[in-house]
Amino acid sequence: MQHTLVYHHPTIAEISMAAFSENICKLKEHAPRASMLAVIKTNAYGHGVVPMGEAAVASGAERLGVTTVEEGVMLREHGLLVPIHILSSIVPEQAEVAITYDLTISVSSVTLAKRLSDEAIHQAKIAIVHLKVDTGLHRFGVEPKQITSFCKTTYHLPNLEWEGIYTHFSRADDGDWEQTEKEFALFQQTVIQLQQSGYHFPLQHAGGSSITLERKDMHLDMVRPGVALFGYTPDIRQEKKLSLKPVMTLKSRLLQVREIPPGTPVGYSGSYVSSSVEKIAVVPIGHGDGYKRALSNKGEMLVRGKRAKIIGTISLDQTLINVTDISDVKEGDEVVLLGEQGKERIGAREIAKWAGSNIDEILASLTERIPRKYIEN
Ligand SMILES: *Cc1c(COP(=O)(O)O)cnc(C)c1O
């Protein structure tokens, strides 16, 4: 069930549309010769796929990228007309809906290529496809060694338009340029080899946020930033490349504040025990909302501009914090879990570190149950 804002659920994610738009503009300026495919997969990294898709296009993104057909369909049903790429693969049974909704499909399977061709003939349409090359991630993609024979079987299938060819690097986020350059070179050789055999792909693309930020020489025809749109760079070293603004602020309110004597176990299994008289508070968010259980006894939140530690084991719907050292804390006070309060700030990178996770997971895990409030400026 999704809470809506009218019910006053105290935990909400505020989404700054101004920050998002600014990030897109900065990234576009940073990649002036490439077009932009804004990657808004996984519910736009937790920000809401439809509003972020609309905003991305309004801010100049030429294309959108998702990973499920459902997200693609949702964007179309909300009137978005730009090319929408499905960046992972689909199963043949999804060919029909993908073509009905004019989604751009990534292809690395002969079975899928044939099914798309059959379905496109059936619908009297042209299916737009991009060939995915595996240059080292070893996830989806055709291996360069087999790609010519792959094209022999699939390139001339009727009603398919091979609009593009692309790869996705395995270690660009880590800054492993030796490996990334190897993968890039392999990609370029593959494209040339295919051209020489008469297989042409007008749009060539390779990089996500890391490449957009750090390697202009690898932008090719199009860049595919994801997490950077939402104000975060995949690695901390990239923060000085471009000043991006975090788009999401996650906040809640204290539901209860109380004092406990020394030696009081707190929460399930008593994984925290107070060492003196302590003041604790309940925040209505839990791992059922996607607020990681791994933050138990590790994470922090902001109350009255100060940091309060998470104590005890996070439950499905509630998290306890220690507010002993913060004066005047009252029931109903605002708590910031992600974002700024007073002079303090907690970013997704910091939360990821506490949880032993990464920024993508921290943002994308936040469930639909948390209402999103879109702030226009
Ligand atoms: C997720 C994804 C991206 C975006 O990655 P970021 O590191 O978030 O920029 C780009 N391309 C493909 C194929 C992806 O799956």
From TrEMBL:
GO MF terms, alphabetically ordered: alanine racemase activity; pyridoxal phosphate binding
All copies of domain Alanine racemase C-terminal, residue ranges: 247-375
Catalytic center residues: K41 (proton acceptor), Y268 (proton acceptor)
Record flagged with keyword rRNA processing: no
Entry keyword annotation includes Magnesium: no
GO terms under cellular component: cytosol
Protein name in UniProt: Alanine racemase
